[in-house]
Amino acid sequence: MAGLARTGLAARGVMYAIIGWIALQIAFGSSGHQADSAGALRLLAHNPVGAILLWLLAIGFAGLALWRLSEAIWGAAGSGGKASSRLASLGRAIIYGLLTFTIFKYVLGLGAPASSNSQSRDLTAALLRQPGGQILVTLIGLAVAAAGVALAYQYWQKKFLRQMRLGGVSPAVRRTVTRLGQIGGIARGTVFAAVGVFLVVAAANAKPGQARGIDSALRAMTGTPFGPWLLVLVAAGLILFGVYSCCEARWRAV
């Protein structure tokens, strides 16, 4: 199980690094791919050894899903078996399980992955058609935005170091891993917060088209007063989070 966890963390790192690289290209107007998991998979598929890379990613995320599921059943390392920690692990297991299914389906030629933009719009439209849909979408958007802010704050406060076993490394390595986690985690939280804000806006206006996935949320950053430079910073942060996730594959307590 520890091996599955570490393989999965490395796969997650690769995925975030690719998404960040695509976002960086978008900032400079030179990418035809979407900056989300679907875009990352399509980019890998165009590589000469794309099929092999996709299989490795699928295996990695399958390992990540199984590890999170084991945490939901038996409790995460250092959590004391708290119910909130188990529920969080279960939620992550479901998300990674769905991503694993998407990758396997894509690599087997059974269907291309849907973009995060279309998924967000379709889900928002389905919810808005239900009684009390606007309220429900608003609550989901607020929850996603709050989770993004909380995530960024936790990484800023270096709380992730509690899960790392860096006692045997040099001070320079520890500082590097800490900075990677801080910058990468803040960037990751910023993206989630932006997605949540767009969900709230879509609910307020009852327009599913205003809901945005990760790709559109990143692209929207180019329309801020900071221009493309905000997206450059966030994209670089996502790449650094990918590197940090690989550090987790090496030193995280699993």
What's the arrangement of secondary structure elements?
Blueprint: H1 2-27, H2 37-45, H3 50-74, H4 83-107, H5 116-128, H6 133-156, H7 171-205, H8 214-220, H9 228-251
Structure explained in plain terms:
It contains nine helices and no strands. It has 254 residues and is mainly alpha-helical. The chain has one domain. α2 runs antiparallel to α3 (50-74) and α6 runs antiparallel to α7. The longest helix has 35 residues, at 171-205. The radius of gyration is 18 Å and the shape is globular.
Give the structure's gist in a few sentences:
The protein is mainly α. The chain has 9 helices and no strands.
The rough form would be described as globular
User: How many beta strands in the DSSP annotation?
Assistant: 0
Largest sheet features? none
Query: How many structural domains?
Result: 1
Mean pLDDT: 90
**Coarse structural class:** mainly alpha
Helix-residue proportion: over 70%
Flag low-confidence runs.
none
Task: Write the H/E string, N to C.
Answer: HHHHHHHHH
* Rounded radius of gyration (Å): 18 Å
DSSP strand (E) fraction? under 5%
Q: Count of helical segments?
A: 9
The rounded distance between the terminal residues' Cα atoms is 8 Å
